[in-house]
Amino acid sequence: MKRNLSKLANTNFDLLIIGGGIYGAILFWQATLLGFSVGLIEKGDFAEGTSSNSQKIIHGGLRYLQQLNVLRMRQSIWSRGMFMRIAPHLVHPLMCLMPIYGHGLKGKETMSLGLRINDLVSFDRNDLSKKSKCIPNGKILSLAETNYFIPHLDQRNLMGSAQWYDALCSNTERIIIGLLRTACEKGAVVANYVKGVKLILNGYRVTGVKVKDQLTGCEFDILAKRVANCTGPWANEFLPHSNKNYKHPQKLVKGINIVVNKILPFNCAVGLKSKTARGRLYFAVPWSGKTIIGTEYSLYHGYPDENRCDEDGCLQLIDGFNQAYPFAQLKLDDVTFIHNGLLPVDGQKSSTNGEKSISKKFKILDHGFHGIHGFISIIGVKYTTAGYVSLKALKYLFPEIANTEVNFKQRLVGGDIDDFPSFRKEIVRRWETKIDAEVLVQLIENYGTETGDVFRMEGLQTNSFTKQGDHSLLILKGQTLFAIQEEMAMKLSDVVLRRTGIGTMKRPGKEILNKISSIMAEEHGWTETRRRAEIQEVNDFYPSFIT
């Protein structure tokens, strides 16, 4: 995947996509597989915004059962199956538990019925030939089983727990990179750090977009027959430049998830409700030897670019989770990373903390109704359902495929794996004499069949390489070179936060930042001043209370 601005400027695309989050990336991938010529631009780096701020769960829509919304459940089930199929190295089944207290609408009997209905609605969720990706039926666990899986619960009126399965994505950013790279291998064109400035119109029809290269300041035009705005929270910023008659009413809610260095005493995702007036439901998800906890919501009133991690929001989340699970005794010092994203709000009404205001449904806005034909905006709500939404958008943009039954089976780069447990076992067997098994598993889940390509970047395939000593920096060099040469990593933050993911586990130290930035300086021809500025930019990303 190469950054080819000349090709962007000299192609008249069937579709140009603005925005490189999950909605833009999956639309890019699907449109390319259907045979259209497609370009995509992103003003920052891919997956830099809300798409990287998640709890890593690919939901099957059980939550929508409370609203009796079977359609949304089916959308989520379809999308979850698609992700597990196209990225078997990144997406795996995840056991989820929720303690049940008492009887009534949220009691044992009601939950048991809900799990049965969920199994019926998702009757076609499994490909029986892929046993490692099967989603088992839900069930009610006994009091003893519940205390085994989730120790230290409040025992008063505890009846057991509901058990169901969803899926865990080990690295949501790499899903997006995989979608983009797979499309590029089939001829699509993509570039990060290219900002859409304004639409180019011929009368009332879009014919392209004026853009600006954020790295050089150069401006040029990209021609396209159709344009899709997938900028998420930034849709407000782009639309006024495109149509003065259109006032986009979208309000935003800020969602915070935290990564903590405490491994809580359960190895599955657990939903826990605080016993306060707010009654917030928190999920704790085991991930890479840490725990992701969320989500805390609040109304957001500023510009998307000004959104920052704040200490008050973290403290509120920590306090709420400690009330839901007092044994955790979390403190601010336990926080190693903060996921901080913006979500759309429905309508003008909103609650004080924004929880009830989060949009329940995606929107595909046709701006032909506002005087710009061939231009749509996609306002997504959930990471999981991006595949379903983008397919709907494609059928809207290209009426000729409206009645086509499409089932995307093209695996992403690195994902050509039929039996992931066997594949992982074989790679570990081959390399465990040279690299620790725990490190190997993380690399395999990130890179799949391309794990060996990462090793080759730094010559780790040589017979002289042994397990003696700490080879973490050598492996990191291989990952950095792979990110630069294959994954369009243009800045230090791209590698640290969105290619290797090392900066999403904890704040990287001086040695690591110096190592990666020195490699990038050599590859990209940076001056020493530029290299130091890149390090400072990464350090500035983290709030001061994360050390």
Detail the topology: elements first, then pairings.
Elements: H1 5-9, E1 12-13, E2 15-18, H2 22-33, E3 38-42, E4 57-58, H3 70-86, E5 91-101, H4 108-121, E6 139-141, H5 143-149, E7 158-169, H6 172-185, E8 189-192, E9 194-202, E10 205-213, E11 219-224, E12 227-229, H7 235-242, E13 251-260, E14 269-273, E15 281-287, E16 290-300, H8 311-324, E17 335-345, E18 363-366, E19 375-379, H9 386-397, H10 420-431, H11 437-447, H12 451-457, H13 472-486, H14 492-499, H15 510-524, H16 528-541
Parallel strand pairs: 1-11, 2-3, 2-12, 3-8, 5-14, 12-19
Antiparallel strand pairs: 4-7, 5-7, 6-7, 9-10, 10-11, 13-16, 13-17, 14-15, 15-16, 18-19
Quick synopsis:
34% of the residues lie in helices and 22% in strands. It has 16 helices and 19 strands.
Low-confidence stretches: 348-354
* Total DSSP helices: 16
Largest sheet: 9 strands, mixed
How many extended strands? 19
Q: Termini separation (Å)?
A: 34 Å
Could you tell me the CATH topology label of the largest domain. FAD/NAD(P)-binding domain
Percent strand:
15-25%
How confident is the prediction overall: mean pLDDT?
Answer: 89
The outline comes out as: globular
CATH superfamily of the largest domain: FAD/NAD(P)-binding domain
What structural category arises from helix and sheet content?
alpha/beta
* Helix content range: 25-40%
Whole-angstrom Rg: 23 Å
Look at the structure and give the CATH class of the largest domain.
Alpha Beta
Second rung of CATH, namely the architecture of the largest domain: 3-Layer(bba) Sandwich
Number of domain units: 3
